[in-house]
TrEMBL record, chain A:
Official protein name in the record: Uncharacterized protein
Species in which this protein is naturally found: Trifolium pratense
Automatic annotation (TrEMBL), chain B:
Pfam family, one: Glyco_tran_28_C
Organism, scientific name: Trifolium pratense
GO CC terms in record: UDP-N-acetylglucosamine transferase complex
SUPFAM superfamilies the UniProt entry points to: UDP-Glycosyltransferase/glycogen phosphorylase (SSF53756)
One GO process term, biological-process aspect: dolichol-linked oligosaccharide biosynthetic process
Residue ranges of domain Glycosyl transferase family 28 C-terminal in the record: 13-166
UniProt KW Aminoacyl-tRNA synthetase keyword: no
Keyword tags: Transferase
Transferase is among the record's keywords: yes
Protein name: UDP-N-acetylglucosamine transferase subunit ALG13
Length: 233, 177
């Protein structure tokens, strides 16, 4: 060895660096496992005030099912409500606005006080090439991050569209980092009888949803950690 | 099932819907002589096709011994068309299916085999197994119409979102109502 002291120092510092990295990784892993463990259990405190709620809308049948669920949720508990739909989906936000308008006129409050409507860039359009999809997914993820930092919801309701994945992943990261604890409720579509959708499968396998609801008994048998709730429609 | 409630009994409309999709195979099948013949034999008088984004245009017909055929691309709500129909033939979209079942109309669901990930057939098959509707492909549609016994269909009891709401409320620590 030519420069004895230099070599010793660089090997010590690289061991130190490696050890610190290893420690940080292990700590993160422990924190992630702890978050997953806590997510699966009902919140320990009795709820005393309304929870801010993010509602992720998807095209067509998804929105119909979500509105069906919202109809039976007590609006004074899930408040304020933030609706997000994909940028290219025009119908869903309109339908949500109609629901909120009728609620507001019933109780004579301003819609703007309890509900907000936002659009999010799609990671990938149907049929889009995979190469351009990498770029659009990055943009969509940054946009999702921006929206989540603004909203930081306590509850997330979603039922299938791909738009929910970036938002739920970011919500999970916020949980791990202690930025905000969001309870994520995923209701698999009634159209899924024997297999979960891709979104459902991802959230299930990655243990990212606090509760994953399925509408057909066959799915509950296949995915034991899911909760069978019968049909919503 | 399929009570016509005051509608002119001599007018029995078959309403075909593809929703917001393009489903030329179904529109072609319904416009084929095979299927129109079977519908006539079963006593239907009118065929109304909502063809969506498809490119195949059916042939209009006035009647005179055959079905009266008409078509349109989209409408803001097909509820009225569903209500005045005696038989509905629909693509396998869950929205169309449940809207029709809620109205207690006889329904034949045709699955689009050209769609890539065909999870839609799961729902159609399950509901057919439970005898709430008939399932067919564009090729077998005329056979299904010929063999069908609408009286054997069971009404669909609409679902209820309350169990999910209760789960969510309890999980978050809200008191039960």
């Amino acid at each position: 060895m030519e420069n004895g002291n230099g070599c010793c120092f660089s090997s010590v510092s690289s061991i130190a660096t490696l050890s610190s990295v290893a420690v940080v990784v292990i700590l993160i892993l422990i924190r992630v496992l702890h978050v997953i463990y806590c997510s699966g259990r009902p919140l320990s405190k009795r709820a005393s005030k309304p929870v801010s709620t993010l509602i992720i809308l998807g095209s067509g049948g998804h929105t119909a099912e979500m509105l069906n669920l919202l109809a039976v949720l007590q609006k004074d508990r899930f408040n304020p409500r933030y609706y997000i739909a994909a940028a290219t989906d025009n119908m869903s936000l309109q339908k949500a606005m109609m629901l909120e308008n009728s609620l507001a006129s019933e109780s004579r409050i301003k819609v703007a006080d309890t509900a907000q409507f936002m659009k999010i860039y799609r990671s990938r359009e149907v049929g889009q090439s995979y190469i351009t999809s990498v770029w659009t997914t990055l943009i969509a993820t940054v946009h999702a991050l921006w929206l989540m930092i603004k909203i930081r919801p306590e509850v997330i309701l979603c039922n299938g569209p791909g738009t929910c994945i970036p938002l739920c992943v970011i919500a999970f990261i916020f949980k791990v980092l202690g930025i905000r604890w969001s309870s994520i409720f995923y209701v698999e579509s009634i159209a899924r009888v024997r297999r979960l959708s891709l979104s459902g499968l991802l959230l299930y396998k990655l243990w990212m949803a606090d509760q994953l609801f399925v509408q057909w008994p066959q799915l509950q048998q296949q995915y034991p950690r899911a909760t069978y709730v019968g049909r919503l429609m | 099932m399929g009570d016509e409630e005051g509608v002119d009994k001599s007018r029995r409309v078959v309403f075909v819907t593809v929703g917001t999709t393009s489903f030329d195979a179904l529109v072609k099948a319904v416009d084929s002589e095979n299927v129109k013949k079977e519908l006539l034999v079963k006593g239907y008088t009118h065929l109304l096709i909502q063809m969506g984004r498809g490119s195949y245009v059916p042939t209009k017909s006035e009647g005179e011994g055959s079905l009266v055929v008409d078509y349109f691309t989209f409408s803001s709500s097909i509820a009225d068309h569903l209500r005045s129909a005696s038989l509905v033939i629909s693509h396998a979209g869950s929205g169309s299916i449940f809207e029709t079942l809620r109205l207690r109309k006889p329904l034949i669901v045709v699955v689009n085999e050209d769609l890539m990930d065909n999870h839609q057939s799961e729902l159609a098959d399950e509901l057919a197994n439970r005898k709430h509707l008939y399932c067919a492909s564009p090729q077998t549609l005329h056979q299904t119409i010929s063999d069908m016994d609408l009286n054997s269909l069971l009404p669909y009891t609409p679902g209820d979102a309350t169990p999910v709401a209760n789960h969510i409320n309890r999980f978050l620590g809200f008191p039960d109502d």
